[in-house]
């Protein structure tokens, strides 16, 4: 509705707009609109806003006399007009309709509550308009003429309509801002409380933390009762920001006996394990003499009590109460209190169970250490036999580069593959977190697939036909880690074979498509159900399947496929027409130009090394020691071997090496101890020490360097890396 343009209206609207625009607080907004209306237009301005339950609540009764304002607001909260009374604030808010009339007119005069209220303040005429913003009724605003004797003309009502429209929008904005700010504060309060509770392992500290979190931020009072081991209820804290007031409440509580059957009492909440909201001035709480006396003594208004339940066990109850602040407990307040109660219960339970938890923690740490030690030992034991194999292959290549080339390459690939698998075993967490280190180089996916077929041959032996290969004539190049990409294809082939009958078909296709390299593994096997298809690449998805795997679950291998492919900047997808209709897994990687391919390295010819370079190898694995010694002799070194620490120290009487390669897992005393003894022996002055071991964890390397080793190498070490390391330490090319 457009406001009439008579003198003063524009100034009034401008004043209203300025006042409303300057506030994001609902209470400030209410007073701003009231000050515009009183006394310029009317003697009184009343505003009701609907609460969370949709019930109008008097928020403002404004008069130029502050004493009258306070009295009117207090009376209005005690005496409410019936919502069906036409012309009442409640009626206008409920029906979203305006009303202009006299308080002497029926039906307003017929309502005893409304009649007594208006007569007390000499109210004569009123105009009530609903406050509506964005199609939602926020409440109602009533403008009243009383002692001034003025009347409300049509143009006054039009102006009030416009002011109400602007006020409703401002209130809606202020309420939205207040709600957002309140939510932020609740989350901040919850986060701070959670942090404090998580740090506390003392019952008394936990009780005080929860109480000081709630008072005064949320409520005026906080009480917590706990059950002892015998199930007897005890009041543990009754908290108020005024300690003296809290002491008086405790003293009165000792005199009073609240009925355990009173709904909302602490005993009732503990027994029923249900939260309860109530008001002290309303039944059933007002009917209990003890609670009524408490209300009278401390002006308590509303409360919310929640059970403290942790891990299925009731520990006690928590109650918050509103009193002198005049606040109520809204839905969001109760939700916050309930959440805090749940966290407090867990914190209290944790505090009671701290000793058991500490014991369990120590046991878990011991088990974790045992697991790490076992994996380290297993890795050491697996790497030890690989070391002489790798060294022997290097010797064969250097002595006769032209013989058994293909066989040596196969063995070399398998040794590298086994070494990487051992690394995976010792670093599972890195794999599951996608932190695997990739050795990137130009790779032909046709070669990757061929290697994968070769490595998975054993699983195809019992099948009717080997995997079908569909390879292009030209290279399909990507920048990647050949071993990891081979692992990707191997995992897909193993998965296909696992879920495809022996008579079924498995095919592998490599292609270039739109600047991308594609590897596709397709089978005619069991297929994948629609419910499982989105999850096949997730970690441990098989844990949700039956133990016999008959429900189509897939394993960790596909999760590793996804992580490795994504680390290569690619993507992987699974598709299936349903159970019993086969499946298709497609890996897509960024392609590179075929010219980026590198020529495979031929075995290096023996290098010319200066004669007389003296080395010592200390290893209880005779095969590993002798093959490594022979390799070093081929490049011109003088090498002596020892099988344990004592033998190595005795050897120093007749042989002074420039560098010693020490195994760590030696009999008698380990390589760390031997390194310490050698560093303290004047016969080894200037000698370099290299740890050559199957222990390959980060802390193994750190421990070796701390023991004054110059370098730490993990078996099986590639010959080129070994030679580079020795050359760097000795300053002599190998």
TrEMBL record:
The modification 4-aspartylphosphate is found at residue 663. Residues 614-730 form the Response regulatory domain. It comes from the Bacteria. InterPro entries: CheY-like_superfamily (IPR011006), GAF (IPR003018), GAF-like_dom_sf (IPR029016), HATPase_C_sf (IPR036890), HATPase_dom (IPR003594), His_kinase_dom (IPR005467), HisK_dim/P_dom (IPR003661), HisK_dim/P_sf (IPR036097). One of its GO terms (molecular function) is phosphorelay sensor kinase activity. GO terms for cellular component: plasma membrane. It catalyses: ATP + protein L-histidine = ADP + protein N-phospho-L-histidine. Residues 377-593 form the Histidine kinase domain. PROSITE patterns: HIS_KIN, RESPONSE_REGULATORY. It is an enzyme of class 2 (transferase). It is a multi-pass membrane protein. Keywords: Kinase, Phosphoprotein, Transferase. It holds the Pfam family GAF_2. Its EC number is 2.7.13.3. It is found in: Cell inner membrane. This is histidine kinase. It comes from Ramlibacter albus. The lineage of its organism: Bacteria, Pseudomonadati, Pseudomonadota, Betaproteobacteria, Burkholderiales.
């Amino acid at each position: 509705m457009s406001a009439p343009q008579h003198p003063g209206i524009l100034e009034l609207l401008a004043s209203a707009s300025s006042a409303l625009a300057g506030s994001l607080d609902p209470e400030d907004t209410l007073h701003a609109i009231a000050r515009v209306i009183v006394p310029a237009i009317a003697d009184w301005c009343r505003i009701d806003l609907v609460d969370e339950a949709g019930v109008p609540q008097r928020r403002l009764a404004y008069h130029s006399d502050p004493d009258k304002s306070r009295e009117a607001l207090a009376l209005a909260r005690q005496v409410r007009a019936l919502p069906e009374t036409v012309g009442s604030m409640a009626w206008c808010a409920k029906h979203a309709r305006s009303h202009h009339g006299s308080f002497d007119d029926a039906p307003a005069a017929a309502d005893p509550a409304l009649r007594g209220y208006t007569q007390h303040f000499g109210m004569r005429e009123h105009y009530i308009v609903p406050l509506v913003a964005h199609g939602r009724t926020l409440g109602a605003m009533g403008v009243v003429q009383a002692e001034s004797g003025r009347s409300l003309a049509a143009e006054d009502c039009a102006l009030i309509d416009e002011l109400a429209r602007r006020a409703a929008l401002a209130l809606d904005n202020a309420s939205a801002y207040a709600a957002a700010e309140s939510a932020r504060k609740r989350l901040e309060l919850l986060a701070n409380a959670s942090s404090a509770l998580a740090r506390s392992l003392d019952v008394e500290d936990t009780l005080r933390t929860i109480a000081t979190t709630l008072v005064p931020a949320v409520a005026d009072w906080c009480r917590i009762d706990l059950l002892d081991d015998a199930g007897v209820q005890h009041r543990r804290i009754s908290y108020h920001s005024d300690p003296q007031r809290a002491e008086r409440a405790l003293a009165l509580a000792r005199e009073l006996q609240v009925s355990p059957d009173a709904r909302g009492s602490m005993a009732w909440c503990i027994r029923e394990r249900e939260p309860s909201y109530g008001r002290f001035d309303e039944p059933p709480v007002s009917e209990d003499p003890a609670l009524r006396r408490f209300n009278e003594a401390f002006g308590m208004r509303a409360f919310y009590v929640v059970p403290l339940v942790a891990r299925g066990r009731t520990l006690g109850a928590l109650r918050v109460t509103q009193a002198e602040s005049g606040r109520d407990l809204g839905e969001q307040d109760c939700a916050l209190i309930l959440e805090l109660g749940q966290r407090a219960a867990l914190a209290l339970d944790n505090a009671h169970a701290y000793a058991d938890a500490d014991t369990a923690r120590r046991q878990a740490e011991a088990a974790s250490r045992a697991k790490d030690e076992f994996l380290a030992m297993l890795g050491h034991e697996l790497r030890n036999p690989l070391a002489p194999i790798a060294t022997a292959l290097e010797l064969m290549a250097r002595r006769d580069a032209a013989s058994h080339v293909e066989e040596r390459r196969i063995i070399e690939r398998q040794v590298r593959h086994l070494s990487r698998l051992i690394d995976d075993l010792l670093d599972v967490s890195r794999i599951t977190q996608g932190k695997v280190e990739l050795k990137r180089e130009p790779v032909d996916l046709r070669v990757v697939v061929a290697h994968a077929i070769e490595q998975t041959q054993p699983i195809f032996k019992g099948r009717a036909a080997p995997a079908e290969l569909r390879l292009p004539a030209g290279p399909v190049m990507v920048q990647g880690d050949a071993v990891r990409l081979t692992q990707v294809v191997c995992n897909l082939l193993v998965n296909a074979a696992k879920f495809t009958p022996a008579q079924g078909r498995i095919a592998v296709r490599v292609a270039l498509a739109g600047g991308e390299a594609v590897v596709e593994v397709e089978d005619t096997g069991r297929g994948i159900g629609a419910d499982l298809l989105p999850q096949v690449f997730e970690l441990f998805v098989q844990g949700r399947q039956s133990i016999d795997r008959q429900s189509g679950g897939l394993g960790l291998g596909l999760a590793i496929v996804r992580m490795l492919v994504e680390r290569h900047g690619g993507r992987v997808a699974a598709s299936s027409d349903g159970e019993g209709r086969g499946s298709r897994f497609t890996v897509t990687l960024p392609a590179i130009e075929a010219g980026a391919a590198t020529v495979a390295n031929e075995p290096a010819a023996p290098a010319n090394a200066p004669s007389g370079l003296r080395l010592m190898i200390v290893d209880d694995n005779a095969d590993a020691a002798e093959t490594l010694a022979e390799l070093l002799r081929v490049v011109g070194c003088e090498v002596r071997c020892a099988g344990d620490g004592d033998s190595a120290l005795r050897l120093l009487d007749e042989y002074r090496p420039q560098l010693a390669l020490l195994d760590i897992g030696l009999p008698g005393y380990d390589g760390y101890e031997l390194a310490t003894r050698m560093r303290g022996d004047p016969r080894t002055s200037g000698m370099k020490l290299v740890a050559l071991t199957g222990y390959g964890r980060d802390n193994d390397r750190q421990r070796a360097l701390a023991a004054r080793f110059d370098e730490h190498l993990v078996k099986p070490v590639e010959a080129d890396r070994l030679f580079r390391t020795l050359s760097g330490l000795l300053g002599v090319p190998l």
